[in-house]
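Internal ticket - ligand job 309, adenosine-5'-diphosphate:
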Amino acid sequence: MIEINGLVKLYGKKAAVDNISFTVEKGEIVGFLGPNGAGKSTTMNILTGYLSSTEGTAKVDGIDILENPMEAKKLIGFLPEQPPLYPDMTVDEYLRFVYELRSCKLPKEAHLAEVCKVTRISDVRSRVIGNLSKGYRQRVGIAQALVGNPPVIIFDEPTVGLDPKQIIEIRNLIRNLGKNHTVILSTHILSEVQAVCDRIIIIKDGEIVADEKTENIARTMDDSRKFTVKISGPQKEVQKLLSEVNGIARAEATGERELDSYTYVIESEKGVDPRKPLFYAMAKAGYPIIGIEAAAAALEDVFISLTSK
Ligand code: ADP
Ligand code: MG
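stdout (structure tokens):
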């Protein structure tokens, strides 16, 4: 459905995107993951025809976005990093405007009502966009992308600046869209792509460093898991005991202390869950475990483990 081949974008001498190629099949939800400045927005903007490439091609359903921008753009709904909203318009006026702009042929009232329903903005349709909360404005941005029911949907950092509840709502919405659309979303948040996407493409300094099914990326991270543990007892003694527990490869005190409890970061051996032996060892020694949680794998950890393969 989407075919990107040898894409290069130079700003002066610096390559924002440096020879990127990938394809996305119909019906896939693909996460484009990378830190700030990696080249995500540049790639999305070229793919959607907002920006021209220095070299390389981008095709949507076989149509070249540079050669045939009008045709290609009809197939794409795009939520840019800065949604193109008109703060003085009401939601309803804005969506009607987008409908006309796209020369949409679907039954107008029914279609716009449906778009408002799936993005859950029906109750604010008569409100002025400028007065809406960030979460609602983001949903209006998504609604705008859905007008005309394009088969391909591209979202650039759709959850930035939203609160946790709004983030969950938007993620659910995207997952639902994935049932009937091909979706690409960019983000710098690993847990976001894990939660939503079938496949993850990792981009760093304008180059693709990994392109894997989400479950494989999760497996890579599971190979060596980290936990943060808080244990009540003398630090030296506890740390020595920790290093002797089956399945723990490394244990380090973080220096964090609360009353008589110290916090440690433990790293498990490949494929072993050390939590049960840890519990018994500490119980036997009389040092209660006050808390234990799996440390989220940092994006950097994933980069390192994926790029060193
Ligand atoms: P991301 O979306 O992953 O944060 P971008 O695609 O926005 O990354 O940017 C990639 C790189 O290109 C960054 O180093 C950025 O500073 C640079 N860049 C982006 N837009 C421009 C521009 N208009 N002029 C010069 N450099 C730019
Ligand atoms: Mg960006």
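Auto-summary: Residues 164-177 form the longest helix (14 residues). The longest strand covers residues 14-24.
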